[in-house]
Amino acid sequence: MKPLRTLMAVLLVFVSVAMPALAHDTPFSYVDLHLSSTGVEATLEAPAADFAHYLPKVEPDMLLTNTGAEANKTLMFALLKERFHLSADDNLLTMELRGVTTAKERKNVRFDLAFAWKGLPKTLTVQSRLFPYDPRHTTYLNIYEGKPLQQQLIFDAKTERLNYVPGSHQAISTVIKQFIIEGIHHIFIGPDHILFIVGLLLLGGTLRQLLKIVTAFTVAHSITLALATLNILSPSPRLIEPTIALSIVFVGVHSLLHKEEKRDFRLLFAFGFGFIHGFGFASVLHELELPRQALGWSLFSFNVGVEMGQMCIVLLVTPILAALHRYSEKAAHKTVLASSIIVILAGGFWFVQRVFMA
Questions:
Q1: At what angle do helices 295-327 and 191-201 cross, to 10 degrees?
Q2: I want to staple 205 with a disulfide (CB 3.0 to 4.6 A). Which of 48, 165, 166, 209 is the partner?
Q3: Band of the pLDDT at 49, cuts 50, 70, 90?
Q4: pLDDT tens, position by position, 113-170
């Protein structure tokens, strides 16, 4: 019964991560640096929940009001001064607070900051480790000289220090590598996308068949991801997120009720629901100002990363299912039933959460 135990362990890991989470409830911060001859004008936006973690007796919702943000700005600013630094040619710059506002729709707090210097340095060094208590936290850094976006860099648990040379441009190869990694990362932090793919895989099939299903999903979500990122079509998350949850319930019910003699519609489901999931993927990219000079490469690389992440899921689940069928068709059937119920319950939980608890 080892294949059965292995598959159920994989599903339980997915669900243990998934059940308390919303689709894209992974913490992100955003920093814009506008460079000039006199210094840096900066904005830093970060989740209220992360600030609240370090403030005694302060709840996240308290920071999402102008009164609460203003009352706690000194403590939050002290936290920023401790964990976010700019250095010009190795000389630490002084951070000045210009103001604090709220971004309620994203549940974030936004700071307007300034750093003075006497001229553009040869090298600007940025150090960021905003919220070390959460290793998932990612900070996106945009650097501008004038209006054009020159570089977009990413801080995570493994990257706390980055250098920028004023006047330089970001290489296309750097953009490609960066967004492939982001695509892979986004699949594995999106438990709803993972459960949707697992639901599609439960009925089994050859590796080629399953890869074709996942690729159909990728083709569809690539279209809507591009449309949303380019601001051509951007449905409200209040519509998209519950629909994504229903898509998970749908594939779970299909796996639960499917009979061998019936036609397999998974390829159609993957392609159809892929359009909806694409808008879900776009919720992260839409908040980033992608490098305009490499926008096509950014989108392409992100989709390549998503596809690679999905392939990893296929290559993990498919051998387990195949081994289970070889061991016992009866055990395989019971596992599919149990797994389908888990997928349905997870999707149903998200639907209720996103409709009634958002």
A1: 50
A2: 209
A3: very high
A4: 999 998 899 999 999 999 988 888 889 888 988 777 778 888 888 888 989 888 777 6
Of 161-170, 190-199, 207-216, 286-295, the poorest mean pLDDT is in 286-295
CA-based torsion, 297, 303, 306, 307: positive or negative: negative
In contact, 23 and 241? CB cutoff 8 Å = yes
State the amino acid at position 60 in one-letter form: P
pLDDT at 303 (0 to 100): 84
Q: Where are the beta strands (DSSP E) in the chain?
A: 28-35, 39-47, 84-88, 91-92, 95-103, 108-116, 124-128, 138-145, 149-155, 161-164
Q: Are strands 138-145 and 28-35 parallel, antiparallel or unpaired?
A: parallel
CA distance readout (Å), 45 to 33, 107, 157, 220? 12, 10, 18, 32
What span, in angstroms and rounded, lies between the C-alpha atoms of 322 and 5? Answer: 14
pTM: 0.66
The predicted model gives 344-348 an average pLDDT of 91
Q: What is the residue whose two structure tokens read 């100002």?
A: 289
The number of C-alpha atoms within 13 Å of 7 and in the hemisphere containing its C-beta is: 30
Helix, strand or coil, per DSSP, at residue 168: coil
Q: Are 145 and 154 in contact (CB under 8 A)?
A: no
- Residue pair 164/124 in contact (Cβ under 8 Å)? The answer is yes
CA–CA distance, 252 with 337 (Å, rounded to integer): 9
Of the candidate ranges 4-18, 27-41, 133-147, 181-195, the one whose mean pLDDT is the lowest = 4-18
3-class DSSP state of 24: coil
**pLDDT score for 101:** 93
Rounded Cα–Cα distance for residues 32 and 115 (Å): 13
Tokens representing residue 3 in the block? 């294949």
Annotate 255-312 with three-state secondary structure. HHHCCCCCCCCHHHHHHHHHHHHHHHHHHHHCCCCCCHHHHHHHHHHHHHHHHHHHHH
